[in-house]
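User: My advisor, Dr. K., asked me to get a structural model of this assembly before our group meeting. I'm new to this, so sorry if the format is off. These are the inputs:
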Amino acid sequence: MRKVSIAQKLLIFVVIFTIYAVLPLPLSNPYYLRVLNLLVLFTLFTISSNIIFGHTRQLFLCHGALIGIGAYTSVLLPKSLAIPPWIVIPLGALFSACIGSSISTISSLRRLSIILMAVFTLSFQIIFGEVIVGLREITGGDEGLILRQDLVQLPSTVNRELFYYYVFVFLLFVSIIVYNRIVNSHIGVAFKCIVEDEIAASSVGINVIKYKVLSAFIGSFILGLAGGVYAYYNLYISPSLFNLDLYILVMLVFGGMGTLAGPLLGAGIFTLVFEFLRPMGPITTLIFGLLLIVLFLYFREGLVAWLRGLPTLYRAGGRPSVE
Amino acid sequence: MLPVELLLDGITFGLILSLLGVGITLIFGLGEVLNLAHGEFVVICTILALMFIGRGVDVTLSIVLSLVIIGLIGIAFERLLLFPVYREKGEVRVLMGIFMTYGLSLAIHSYLVNTFPKVHFSVRVPYTEIVIGGLSIRPSTLLAAAIAALALIALGVFLKKTYIGKAIRTVAQNEVGAQLCGVNPASLRTLIFALGAVMAGLAGILYGLIATVTATLGLDFTTFAIVVAIAGGVRSVYGAIVSGIILGIVHAFSSFFLGASLSLVIFLIAVILIVLARPEGVLGEKG
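Assistant: The format is fine. Below is the predicted structure of the whole assembly, which you can bring to the meeting.
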């Protein structure tokens, strides 16, 4: 582990956020802005997946459902109760977080193996879709829900895409700071121990269940928050929008699990790849499916580990040593 | 519809589910790979059968041909994609298996849904309804149930009586022990994967007798198969058969009284409850 001084760390953060803040300024085409919005959105998703799967190895195949819960709650609640979005989006996120952490609590209390966890969360994802389709009167079913624009009124001088871009970047900013605080605290140490060996971790007094639930809570909260804002940004939600797990996992594995730069790079690169492939239509799922296989076979350490290995590669002229 | 008829429909659907669940159980028992692409074999097989029928081949012959081809496809998948998984051990192997088959399943699914969006597979049996004591029974339902039951019995005999069957059960019990006795797990895994694919294909054909198979059903079949296998105890073949029949009956009754969408939700909630209540399965065999 390299030691990074506080000044260096601050510099890295400033650089990252300057990049994100300046990125949309030269672009005026709304399409490019939309791609950038999706990029930041997927970065948020991947960061949460990194917290849940990358740091505590809880296999959630229901990211889509957690995002969807945030989105549907924050759209449906104000419809009936007239609550402003600034309150209702965090409420939706809290609801996602409760669901996510209960999934985590139940499965860690019952000591579900990875197989059972996969089945559990996959069933949950399908149940979510079926419930949304089933409650047609409230949720609009398969056809989805179109939002009336009047929920968030922007002055006409403000560029809508740009406004939401900075909202997403603000969320990203907060998530990265929270992530960084967690990973560099005693919680991060506990996460590391849990990934290495759960039994050994609990034998030295680490409350494994507590930390797993905590990571699921934080991860699901970010998922729900991003989902809620996405609903207001996109003005349209439907159950088929929330089959995102494959993409999130590809981005996470490609970037590198358990790192900060991993999700940023993975989501950044793959959102662009995805946009590039979009003209090919729904076949992109096929390509992403095969990508997941290939990545898991030959690139499981991720881009970050590979980049870290590069300097040694040049110095020693041999293969990089990846732990 | 009378309850007895519903029960019969449920048992038939349950036997088809058992065919699917047994495949998952055997593949997992031998290699610790949870095959999340299992349902896609169902769809591939029915599409193959349709292609043969479309070319003017006799229906029975084209079904047999498609079953053979799906077996070969199974062998190809196992050899090409799963061999790196088997090099790993323990948790890493399980995780890699899930990711490989998850990716594969979504890849095949999107390919099939886009290439064959209008495929509808159903087999018509040219007999009228049989009426026994006020019960009207469709011969296609009976035929599907009979073939599924026969296939399951044949599988049981194969596992219990033949040398290869015994070797398969040995590997499922203890891989290292089996290797010490001169059993090669790798070739048995390929065999079982092919067998699982053929049984999934057969399940698709039989489902075509009682309902219609479309290209979009792959993921549903996968869910059903995994659910049956998990509820049956993941490693127990008999558990998978029993749980398949029970869940089939539950499904028939709940979809008759509550409608398809809600019944799937109830079905999945039942599964979650089973998983949580008894992670080791209905029959309680320890994994």
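One thing worth pointing out at the meeting: Confidence is low (pLDDT under 50) at residues 318-323 of chain A.

User: Perfect, thanks a lot.
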